[in-house]
Amino acid sequence: MTLRPIVVSALALVTALATTYAATTSRPQADAFAKKVAIINQHAEMGAKSVRRTTLTEPELNSWFVYRAQPLLPTGVAEPKVTIIGNGKLLGNATVDLEAIGKKRSSGGSLDLWSYLGGRVPLSVTGILSTKDGKGRFELQSAEISGVPLPKSLLQELVSYYTRTPEHPQGVKLDEPFSLPASIKQIEVGQGQAVVVQ
């Protein structure tokens, strides 16, 4: 048996997967996501009393990341992608640049992990999003950087660094409950989609 059939099969599989991902992200889906977000915000601004349910799909969200989110992403975060697994479970992937945070956090000691970090690396985070009565909480299940398990404390430092704002100089805390925006009461995370309930 030669390697040619195996190589051809592998190339066909990679091409199929690339085509599938490309087919799931598109500018029209990014536009659809943006329109739905605008409707959610408009519903909140009007103070509407009726319950509104808006379905956001995984392809729409990931298309929005590809085509529209770049100006809103923190410097050093690229290529975000979310997989909506279901029952509240989410898988998030992104490429993060550790150079800036590594320089800022490093003490220079030989046992300081931050002194060894740098460059653009893939980050993967899995957790459960729970929401109720206008409040949300993300329960971290696992995190990996370049396929290596990442301790929660180091993930917290990354999240804090990339989510700092003048109003919140410490950034987002992983375990803390947070208020849902736009009068959202809850978000029902199903397989491949999330339903926003206002």
What this model shows, in words?
With 198 residues, the protein is α+β, with helices and mostly antiparallel strands. The chain has one domain. 35% of the residues lie in helices and 31% in strands. It is built from five helices and nine strands, in the order ααβαββαβββαβββ. It has helices at residues 4-24, 27-46, 58-67, 99-105, 152-162; strands spanning 53-57, 77-86, 89-97, 120-132, 135-145, 148-149, 178-179, 186-190, 193-197. The strands form two sheets. Strands 2, 3, 4, 5, 6 and 7 form a six-stranded antiparallel sheet that branches. A hairpin with a 2-residue loop joins strand 8 and strand 9 (193-197). Helix 2 crosses helix 3 (58-67). The longest helix has 21 residues, at 4-24. The chain is globular. The N and C termini lie far apart (60 Å). The relative contact order is 0.15. Residues 1-22 have low confidence and may be disordered.
Annotate the secondary structure layout:
Elements (H helix, E strand, L loop, with lengths): L3 H21 L2 H20 L6 E5 H10 L9 E10 L2 E9 L1 H7 L14 E13 L2 E11 L2 E2 L2 H11 L15 E2 L6 E5 L2 E5 L1
Antiparallel strand pairs: 1-9, 2-3, 3-4, 4-5, 5-6, 5-7, 8-9
Helix pairs in contact: 2-3
Index terms:
198 residues; alpha+beta
Percent of residues in beta strands: 25-35%
Radius of gyration: 20 Å
Number of helices: 5
Which runs of at least 5 residues are low in confidence (pLDDT < 50)? Answer: 1-22
Compute the number of strand runs.
9
| Helix share, percent | 25-40%
Can you tell me the overall shape? globular
What profile does the largest beta sheet have?
Answer: 6 strands, antiparallel
Structural class: alpha+beta
Order of helices and strands: HHEHEEHEEEHEEE
